[in-house]
Design brief:
293 residues, globular
Length: 293
Amino acid sequence: MEAIFGLHPSADPLPSHSPAQYPPSSAHPPSPPPQAQRASRPHSSAPPPPSPSPHSNPFPSAASRSAPRSYPIHARHVESAQLTAERPQDGTLSAPSVNNAQTTWRANDTGTNAPASESASASATPRLTHVDASGKATMVDVSHKPPTHRRALASALVLLGPLAFPLVASNQIAKGDVLTVAQIAGINGAKATSSLIPLCHNVPISKVGVTLTLDHEKQAVEVRAEACTVAGTGVEMEALSAAAVAALTVYDMCKGVSKGIEIRWVRLEEKSGGKSGEWRRGEEGGRVEEAGR
């Protein structure tokens, strides 16, 4: 057989891979623990990476892949603001907090993260009374409040412009007397407030007064509405409704002349009575916007 295929008994067999040249994957020594590596390395600079051997096994075994690896930590990897993890008593990690920042984030009772400063201020902020504990809209119960005298004054401004203002001032609008019709409409608007605004109480109105004044300099009509009552809740909405409806009526009667009429600054000017007492626009806490008025 050997003679047939030209083989000689003394010929060398096929070259084999020696274990020394190609070490098995299991021959790799286990990585030293991280403490030993950090102790043996200087902190000034990182050691150079080992040069790959031309005969090293490119496919490590499962044992070598599962061995723990440690990586050097340098000073340049640490940010100026150190992030520390808060560990509560229950063992769970909360959101990281910045040591040198003014706001520290914490996990609140609802499971969402909110600044501690905002949580403290939110607790002191007055809550809306028209929302119940479940977040649904509700009418406030005022049956326990004693009836007291309450008053509210609201205003609005209707900018007529150069086309409509002379006609209103001379009472030449085709629909009739603009100021008189708007005054009556404002009174009706105050009485219909509880029907237009769902959660507003049906307050027994003692007085509603609406006045409309021409402003020749601004070419506008200034509306002022006053509402009074003796009840357990205020009449701010009644005064605002009267001013708004009167202003809308002015627009309706003049829109045939000019579509560019503007209604601005429907707002509460002052109120009195009730738990909150006196309030006037322009005083501390009452000023919202005065620009252009």
